[in-house]
From TrEMBL:
<keyword id="KW-0238">DNA-binding</keyword>
<dbReference type="InterPro" id="IPR001387">
    <property type="entry name" value="Cro/C1-type_HTH"/>
</dbReference>
<feature type="domain" description="HTH cro/C1-type">
    <location>
        <begin position="5"/>
        <end position="59"/>
    </location>
</feature>
<dbReference type="Pfam" id="PF01381">
    <property type="entry name" value="HTH_3"/>
</dbReference>
<dbReference type="InterPro" id="IPR010982">
    <property type="entry name" value="Lambda_DNA-bd_dom_sf"/>
</dbReference>
<protein>
    <submittedName>
        <fullName>Helix-turn-helix transcriptional regulator</fullName>
    </submittedName>
</protein>
Length: 67
């Protein structure tokens, strides 16, 4: 899964810590999502999209599967 979380965070001038505080998760969770080490829950993904006022698909895209 690809994500644009870091891009959106930068566009809104938020640090990982500030974003984490805003949505009530740890900074490590934000970092793990940005680096692709963690896939967020549906609830967390929706909170992130709502925080940036963007559609969920703007933040997260599925990688094409190899046949």
């Amino acid at each position: 899964m690809r994500n644009a979380l870091k891009v959106q965070r930068a566009m809104h001038d938020l640090t990982q810590a500030a974003l984490a505080e805003r949505i009530k998760v740890s900074r490590k969770s934000i970092n793990a999502i940005e680096t692709g080490n963690m896939v967020p829950s549906v609830v967390l993904a929706l909170k992130l999209a709502a925080t940036f006022n963007v559609p969920l698909e703007t933040l997260f895209q599925l990688e094409p599967e190899n046949p």
